[in-house]
Design brief:
Helix content is 28%, strand content 17%. It is built from four helices and three strands; from the N terminus they run ααββαβα. It is globular.
């Protein structure tokens, strides 16, 4: 069974958030060999009652050539997590993205360390 479910069985918030993070880590910017989570593009992940998820994210730049599909791919991956009821994704450029937002693993992978 995949994707959304009509059941209203609430999954513990941290467990669901961990599953959402794992789903997000499956999405890569095609120009950078690091997933969008480790790149620091995800600003906020909130899990609300009955398994509703809110994600605030950014892109590496407002002119990112992948701007059309990265947010929709992230939303699709999250919706595939069993038990997720609804996903709301908000794209922002405030604060603007910088390389300081990358995880140590991403910086290492890209040769910045």
């Amino acid at each position: 069974m995949t994707g959304s479910t009509s059941e209203n069985i609430e999954i513990p918030t941290q467990e669901l958030k961990d599953k959402v993070i794992n789903a997000i880590k499956q999405v890569y910017d095609p120009e950078i060999p690091v997933d969008v989570y480790e790149l620091g593009l995800i600003y906020e992940i909130s899990v609300y009652p009955v398994n509703n998820v809110y994600v605030m994210m950014t892109l590496t730049s407002p002119n990112c050539p992948s701007a059309e599909f990265i947010p929709s791919e992230i939303k699709d991956k999250i919706q595939q997590v069993q038990g997720i009821n609804h996903v709301e994704l908000e794209l922002t450029f405030d604060p603007p993205y910088s390389q300081d937002m990358m995880s140590e693993a991403a910086k290492l992978e890209l040769g910045f360390l």
